[in-house]
Amino acid sequence: MKIxxxxxxxxxxxxxxxxLKILTDQGLHGIGDATLNGREKAVVAYLEDHxxxxxxxxxxxxxxxxxxxLYRGAYWRRGPVTxxxxxxxxxxxxxxxxxxxxxPLYQLLGGASRDGVxxxxxxxxxxxxxxxxxxxxxxxxxxxxxxxxxxxxxxKGAYGVGMGGLYYEPADSALPMExxxxxxxxxxxxxxxxxxxxxNYGPEIELLHDVHHRLTPIExxxxxxxxxxxxxxxxxxxxxxxxxxxFRIVRQHTTTPLAVGEIFNSIHDCRTLIEEQLIDFIRTxxxxxxxxxxxxxxxxxAALYQVRTGAHGATDLSPACMGAALHFDLWVPNFxxxxxxxxxxxxxxxxxxxYSFADGYLHPGETAGHGVDIDETxxxxxxxxxxxxxxxxxxxxSMWNW
Length: 402
Ligand code: KDG
Ligand code: MG
What we know:
2 domains, 3-stranded antiparallel sheet, 16 strands, binds 2-keto-3-deoxygluconate, 8-stranded parallel beta barrel, single chain, Enolase-like, domain 1, globular, TIM Barrel, alpha/beta
């Protein structure tokens, strides 16, 4: 089955998405997400100028060989732009292969290991009381696991606090919004939030929290320790992870489970974290970590050390990524949880999909392929709208990690 054409579709149904569509001489097509939030056009150029010309005429069934060709062939290995582009090709090819077999993608990976994919939703509020109410709303919708973020007194634009509702979008201005960060105020505030949530909702609900790279290792260790009484499912991105060894310090001091990896793009970004058992959940996902083909390697390494998966699933990862991730999640033996932030109605209309939510679980559906398509006519009605992620500064004006 030969690849005859491929094109990149950029659309903004409320937020920007980049999608690669691959067509074959057998009339089958597949799609893959290539969205890199705030840097979308870099991946578009990479695909259009450097990848698509190499795909034409190749056998669409040779998914592994094409992955290796693009990875080794670039010479310049890894990096978010390269790996998102490779991921888009890989996802589209797995979609085609599963369609050709007439099977949902999870069947090609080895079949279902579970009945549904446990997901967590995003509750946030300007203060503790608003966040407590938001968690309650997620529980009413059936969620068994909820991430909780709250505004911090004295901190302008704390991470994870949206305008309310389900569609929190951090990339919200053409030039980066400047936010202010205070570690002391946050360290004082965060345990109060979880004390209140446990008091309100009891021991059963799974609670998660994202620190979003804001702390030094010893500060992260202190936060993990102070959250122990509230039994978090995980504490995410507690400190930047370019230096994987930094997690040794955190690990020595706390039994709060640690999750990391949404900005990783290769197995090499998490090898030490996994092999030294410094984390409990690896958050790499389809679009930013080289597609199903590479994610499978990461999950295999993680399984050796009882590290479970917890894939990134914010709204900047398109439904095409979510669909593929859900097939992966349904199969992967060491599954932990899947983030599910929900897309807007406009986005869902542009990307018709087979996955569905019920009682706290998502299911990828039984459609052949990964079950997500793109309505190109509708997509064309939403032109690209440049948006960047915010930045953060400390109260004295120094740049910090957003
Ligand atoms: O594009 C950046 C977002 O995907 C990120 O800020 C969301 O941290 C995030 C999460 O855990 O969903
Ligand atoms: Mg995160």
